Amino acid sequence: MIIRIDELSDIPIYMQIRNQIVMGISDGSLAPGEQLPTVRALALEIGINTMTVSKSYQLLKTEGYIMTDRKNGARVRTTIEKQGSISESNKAELKRIVSEARLSGVPKKEIIGLVDGYYGA
Amino acid sequence: MIIRIDELSDIPIYMQIRNQIVMGISDGSLAPGEQLPTVRALALEIGINTMTVSKSYQLLKTEGYIMTDRKNGARVRTTIEKQGSISESNKAELKRIVSEARLSGVPKKEIIGLVDGYYGA
DNA sequence: TATCTGTATTAGATAGAGTAATACAAAAGA
DNA sequence: TCTTTTGTATTACTCTATCTAATACAGATA
After folding, report:
1. CA B79 to CA B66: how far, in whole Å?
2. Are B83 and A105 within 8 A, CB to CB?
């Protein structure tokens, strides 16, 4: 899986990495149990510091998306805990996005179409 | 319209103000042409610096949501330019949110239901 | 033994956010 | 004319988050 960093984005690098891995797990680019690149390999590939990647992995570990240990490196968890609900902050973000889209004249159907595509089958 | 600031949020105050005004315009809490509180009044009410509110208004003005002048203060624009499309950053955010919701076991219908509610009639 | 893994530590640089104290131009009202 | 109110500009300062850098460590592997 290829991680791409947007230097101009105001989203922190460690967060961009985290987000892309989460989305990769969701859309199947990263299979359950699949091994992630080592912190050093990914840091070298992207051209950033090792600790920045480590921070991403720690976050993903805390959130229950991956497992890390000194033996196997980092891997996607085979079973991810399902909260069953959307976080309040994500609801607020969703509302903001929908509001902006609506004011921009984007039809409701178009937004729902995007959600449908991102969610998948 | 009441602006509420979450001190614990990692979203900057000026951005929280901006977001709530945008959402207020979208859901009708703020009518076209309606006058917004003055920067000093809002700053006093929230308990923050005047320039922070001014920064929010400048951003909203740049984005075409409101108009400001020394005569009338700040007002919601009567006609907001419609881009007709969703920004790339909002698409990325939407994908992240949908991915997280999906991995949390949230049904697609539930997300669409939220979008439907936020968008309104 | 040498090499790989994630991680901890300490330090420093940089940028963004927010505050504070003033000040200004323009318009409105007394 | 004088005062008030409007948004805004300026300058300086503090605080925090992010990222980098250079090491080092424990544990596992070949």
Report:
1. 9
2. yes
Q: What is the predicted pLDDT for the residue at B53?
A: 96
Q: Do the Cβ atoms of B17 and B54 come closer than 8 Å?
A: no
Chain segment A44-91, per-residue pLDDT in tens: 999 999 999 999 999 999 999 999 987 888 999 999 999 999 999 999
* Burial bucket for residue A60 (CB in 10 Å: 0-12, 13-18, 19+): buried
Assess contact for A34 and A72: CB atoms under 8 A: no
Which token pair is B28? 């009708």
Whole-number average pLDDT of chain B: 95
Distance CA B50, CA B42 (A): 8
**Chain A interface, best mutation among B5, B23, B110, by max A CB count within 10 A:** B23
